[in-house]
């Protein structure tokens, strides 16, 4: 009798497994059909990649004339050559160009204050760039300078 009971349990498990599989298949087909109909009738908007708005129309670049700095008494005969551009709005380009002597002065003072050993560290350029950008933004006025683009940073 125990064999008959075990066989009945196995049959019930097989039927339950088949039912679950059939139910999952029917549910998947129903969901796929519902999704198709929703997209077809416009309930779900069709995918269309958005074209990015051109932000380049309002950008101007103001060139910072190259700076050549001696690296101090410990680095006899060595110097740093630095050149960069400032990314600004077109409307602010003229005003930023007017304060260029002050910008050069603040960059010159900052770069002279940095220890020569630190200038040779590979990751230091990112820190220098952030520090110089902040100083330039203070001199030029808040919101006028968007970015500082380093075009030349050479230690000879």
TrEMBL record:
<keyword id="KW-0282">Flagellum</keyword>
<dbReference type="Pfam" id="PF03748">
    <property type="entry name" value="FliL"/>
</dbReference>
<keyword id="KW-0283">Flagellar rotation</keyword>
<keyword id="KW-1003">Cell membrane</keyword>
<dbReference type="InterPro" id="IPR005503">
    <property type="entry name" value="FliL"/>
</dbReference>
<keyword id="KW-0969">Cilium</keyword>
<dbReference type="GO" id="GO:0009425">
    <property type="term" value="C:bacterial-type flagellum basal body"/>
</dbReference>
<keyword id="KW-0966">Cell projection</keyword>
<keyword id="KW-0812">Transmembrane</keyword>
<comment type="function">
    <text>Controls the rotational direction of flagella during chemotaxis.</text>
</comment>
<protein>
    <recommendedName>
        <fullName>Flagellar protein FliL</fullName>
    </recommendedName>
</protein>
<keyword id="KW-0145">Chemotaxis</keyword>
<dbReference type="GO" id="GO:0006935">
    <property type="term" value="P:chemotaxis"/>
</dbReference>
<keyword id="KW-0997">Cell inner membrane</keyword>
<feature type="transmembrane region" description="Helical">
    <location>
        <begin position="21"/>
        <end position="39"/>
    </location>
</feature>
<feature type="transmembrane region" description="Helical">
    <location>
        <begin position="59"/>
        <end position="80"/>
    </location>
</feature>
<keyword id="KW-1133">Transmembrane helix</keyword>
<keyword id="KW-0472">Membrane</keyword>
<dbReference type="GO" id="GO:0071973">
    <property type="term" value="P:bacterial-type flagellum-dependent cell motility"/>
</dbReference>
<dbReference type="GO" id="GO:0005886">
    <property type="term" value="C:plasma membrane"/>
</dbReference>
<comment type="similarity">
    <text>Belongs to the FliL family.</text>
</comment>
């Amino acid at each position: 009798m125990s064999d008959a009971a075990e066989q009945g349990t196995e049959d019930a498990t097989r039927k339950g497994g088949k039912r679950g599989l059939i139910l999952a298949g029917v549910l998947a087909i129903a969901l796929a059909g519902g999704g198709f109909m929703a997209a077809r009738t416009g309930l779900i908007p069709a995918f269309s990649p958005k074209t990015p708005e051109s932000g380049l129309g309002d950008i101007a670049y103001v060139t910072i004339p190259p700076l050549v700095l001696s690296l101090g008494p410990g680095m006899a005969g060595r110097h740093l050559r630095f050149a960069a551009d400032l990314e600004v709005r077109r409307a602010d380009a003229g005003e930023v160009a007017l304060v260029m002597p002050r910008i050069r002065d603040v960059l010159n003072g900052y770069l002279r204050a940095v220890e020569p050993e630190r200038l040779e560290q590979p990751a230091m350029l990112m820190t220098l760039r952030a520090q110089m950008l902040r100083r330039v933004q203070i001199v030029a006025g808040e919101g006028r300078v968007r970015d500082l683009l380093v075009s030349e940073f050479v230690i000879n």
